[in-house]
Design brief:
mainly beta, 7-stranded mixed β-sheet, elongated
Length: 119
């Protein structure tokens, strides 16, 4: 099993910043790409940003220019720097990774961290 431990959520005013962290661990697994997804009340979970081990990134259009994803391969940790936060960014943010073991790949999710942006 792979465990994803998230931290950094909280309450912030619009225009403020937060930084999320997620550390992955799992004996016998090779951690691959990591990313962040979010789910607002009554909405489907959506991609926020992803990063490959090589550093390639992908962002949702709604966060481009405001959020930045980065990773530390040695620590199997991914970060999400969120700036210029808006009330519509309010959601539970989930860390995700695809980890490999033997010839198989497995998709893992963190427990989620709440981000609330007040207007």
């Amino acid at each position: 099993q792979v465990q994803l431990v998230e931290s950094g959520g909280g309450l912030v005013q619009a225009g403020g910043s937060l930084r999320l962290s997620c550390a992955a661990s799992g004996s016998g697994f090779v951690i691959g790409a990591m990313g962040w997804y979010r789910q607002a009340p009554g909405k489907q979970r959506e991609l926020v940003a992803t990063i490959t081990r090589g550093g390639d990134t992908e962002y949702a259009d709604s966060v481009k220019g405001r959020f930045a994803i980065s990773g530390d391969n040695a620590k199997n940790t991914v970060y999400l720097q969120m700036n210029s936060l808006k009330p519509e960014d309010t959601a539970i943010y989930y860390c995700n990774t695809v980890a490999a073991r033997s010839f198989y790949k497995y998709n893992y999710w963190g427990q989620g961290t709440q981000v609330t942006v007040s207007s």
